[in-house]
Amino acid sequence: MNVHHLELFHHVARNGGVSAAARAMPYGIQQPAISSQILQLEDSLGVTLYQRRPFQLTREGQALHDFIAPFFDGLAEMGNRLRGGTEQRLRIASVEIVQRDYLPELLMRMRRRKQGFHFTLAHGRQQEIEDMLTAQEVDIGLSTLMHKPAANIESRELLRLPMVLLVPQHSQLHTAAQIFAQDRIDLPLVSLEGKDALSRSFQAALRQRGIEWLPSLEVGSLDLVLRFVAEGFGAGLALRHPRVELPAGVRSLELDDFPPLSFGAMWNGRLSPLGEVFLAEAATLAGELATKMTALPPPASTHVASSTPTN
Fold it and tell me: Which domains are delineated in the chain?
């Protein structure tokens, strides 16, 4: 008998069906793959292990599950015993700005709360993080949530970040509406690459308003957006982060009527107790940051007037 097939059957039996098992699996696997491999197990044994509709274990299926359940149910505890206690290592993936401005404090909080806490860190955006979660390469990811995650990925929104336009301090522009009112916008737009969540969301909002303003300069990070704007190469697209201060020579134009970007956590299956603690600490920090953002006054003379959609 194939041990992986037995593991899948254990989850199906414990959760009362293939659909429920797919949602509860500790790693990503689709329903058709589970069903196919259970059929292979039944073929190898020459018996039917459960009735499909409604779900019910057969006599042979119940006997097999009674035999294998103690082994699979005890794997997590045995792993902890071999590690010398509760698992204190978490594999985290996040986007670059989170690694730079927020993760250090979050990780320090974890170390104060969990003695012996260790972590590994990987870089990626939403789709890359989803792929890592599905492949069980990481335990939890932090990213802008541009689209609904895959069916096997759980998510929780932590923070909403508003879009802003950045211009040089000496610019004659005082609202974004001044830019959008132009029949042909000739001001260069500095942004992240086109597939980035911020760029995609901004361009979608422009299309809804019947405005065409494509980027002239695509750069690799928000730091570079700031640098190019400060040097006078155009207006930059950015997010208003509570801990990112604008450098001297750059000011922001608010985009209040543009949709904010959702930022959140993602994981696959059921979070470990350590993952639950990490998620709780992340939510606490995000709440503190949201309160700080609300308390910040908008920059003087930079509030955008509402632009009228053309459709």
Answer: 3-73 (1.10.10.10), 86-160+262-295 (3.40.190.10), 161-261 (3.40.190.10)
